[in-house]
What does this fold into?
Amino acid sequence: MANRSRDVLLYRGELSILLSRVPASILLVPFVLALSLLISGCGFEPVYAVRDQSGQETFLRSIDLPDTRAGRYLGNQLRGRVTPGEEGGLALHVTLDETRADALIATDGNTERINLTMTATVRLETAEAKIVEQRRFRVSSSYNRTSSELANQETEASLRNTALDRISSDIQFLLADLPADTSTPR
It folds into this structure.
């Protein structure tokens, strides 16, 4: 049995433990806290910090989207990120295509998993209808089909909105990567 008489003092009717050996990690806590307060007070900002630049004016003159529920949702997402300018520039045309396909069929013939694919064809044109850039963005996801049709519809709507959010981000990155001279006709 180890000799523990150095760390424990016995008093009449009670037990007391001495803190003669404090772990080094506990002593570092005040120094780490002071250092973090010092860094946060000096204006340090991490690389991954989010900067809200919604509504930043771009070189777009118009945004043309399909008049569907998905098109309106995408339009709301784009309007929160990109604002068309007042004069000249490019027109953004977006077409959306949604595909549902059975991914896993059980032996009894019932569908157990469904793939949902959203495809956006994005075209940037000048005022003279000259195509500056054309891209296709595709987002695929799948979900397990349940016995509740309402749950299936909610899951599908959520996946659709997530796909449209990703497409909106892709369009924003496309616009950010275009050179500044593309807004003027050549």
